[in-house]
Design a protein that fits this description.
heterodimer; A: 464 residues; alpha/beta; Rossmann fold; 2 domains; 18 helices; 6 strands; elongated; B: 92 residues; mainly alpha
Chain lengths: 464, 92
Amino acid sequence: MLSVINILYLLASVLFILGLVGLAHPKTAVRANRMGALGMLVAIVGTLLDRNVIAAGMNGYMLIAAAMAVGGLIGAALALRIKMTAMPQMVALLNGFGGAASVLVAGAALHDAVNPNLQLLIATAASGVIGAVTFWGSLVAFDKLQEWLLPGKPIHYPLQQPLNVLLGLIALALAVWVVRDPSAMAAYWGLVLVASILGVTLTIPIGGADMPVAIALLNSYSGLAGAATGFVLNNNALIITGSLVGASGIILSQIMCKAMNRSLANVLLGNMGAGSSGGASADETYAGKVKSTSPEEIAMLLETARRVVIVPGYGLAVSQAQHAVRELASLLESKGTTVEYGIHPVAGRMPGHMNVLLAEADVPYDKLKEMDEINPQFGQVDVVLVIGANDVVNPLAITDPSSPIAGMPILEVHHARSVIVMKRSLSPGFAGIPNPLFAADNTLMYFGDGKAAVQALVAAVKEG
Amino acid sequence: MEMFISALTVFVLAVFVGVYVINRVPPLLHTPLMSGSNAISGITVVGAMISIATPGRISTILGFAAVALATINVVGGFLVTDRMLAMFRKKE
């Protein structure tokens, strides 16, 4: 029976890998995701044949079914009701639940172990630490994204790093205790408690704007916690899945860090850029150079444009302007204009978020262009519409080596013939610095509130 | 020790597979990638099922909570990923 179960686990792992392979293209992705779900079904059916589960009889099956019903209902309710703007919160919660499940399973395994070997003990300690850090770190990330209790900006207090090191050392000591005396369950739960505090203290210094990195990293931790639990149970399905998820999270956090030109350490410690040393002030940058425009004037520009690129920022999603933007694009396309979207990797609040928000507004995915693909083409673009974005189109990243965003890859919209920036005011973005793009010769500012401003523009284009 | 080495082998090889496969996923689908990986990390459910079934009140309670949590990941993760991917179908 054991070999049958292990073969089913192998089949499940293969289906998970194929599920990830299929995510390489939107056309194959839906089927790939269902393959992953099938893999999960196979793994669960296999586990129902486990001799412990069979020995537990009807009572065991009923308990498993009840627990799955509870989790299934909560999961389905979350999945079907969550707004796409709140996807980062959803993923943060799921990261956390994954970590918590690992803590509980490792705890149960330690409790039940007869003559546990070194591998089980070390893996149990690892699973407890990583799982608890993941759970509490994810709750903090969730809260910061939801903007309930904690402020979005980094939280700093005296002796922050020494305190974290101290907590880490206490956790290490408790882990050694778990390994030396497996019967001491108090040591395990103490370890989980200390790791829980550590999860909170490690996440609160991370700023709201850096949450894409934090979520990706916690995603990775949840995978590593699962892999550690796999070592506890000697279960290959858990080890394989955990390492796939661990690798995925690490890769995504690296991509996000690169897109912000920050080191991972810099993000984790909550250090924003080195501070603007000698950069021009807002007054120097903008005085007398900013040209404001009206919907009618923009409509005239768009009338003659053959190629238009829309650059969305998170401000667009906050004001729910995606659908109005899509309407504007359709209107222009019906007149023969080419409309595309230039997406910066950190345009949303998690990796790939802006793409989902635009896809929800029925924007075809082949119109969504990555930064590296669209950047060389801005020279041939007639009009760029920047909507609710700021730092990701700030040319100072290229021109001013002393700027806090120096070296950050940006969408080089300033090469386009005309740039229209839709924004409520000249207020700075997360980096807190003025943006010379707003004062450039080829830029017109269209001040207004996201959705209403786009709708006014749609009306003007219709009349024109 | 031999069991550990074989588990470690599986772990290291799976990390390599992960790195190669994930690097092929375009930024377009990075959000579904994350929710999808949440879903498959719900595989902890199989360990949790065994904890429920193991005699003893404590492991049954821990297992019950873990099965519920992991199932949130499985059901929530796959469903929300499906919902998102449906939006990426080619529009006419």
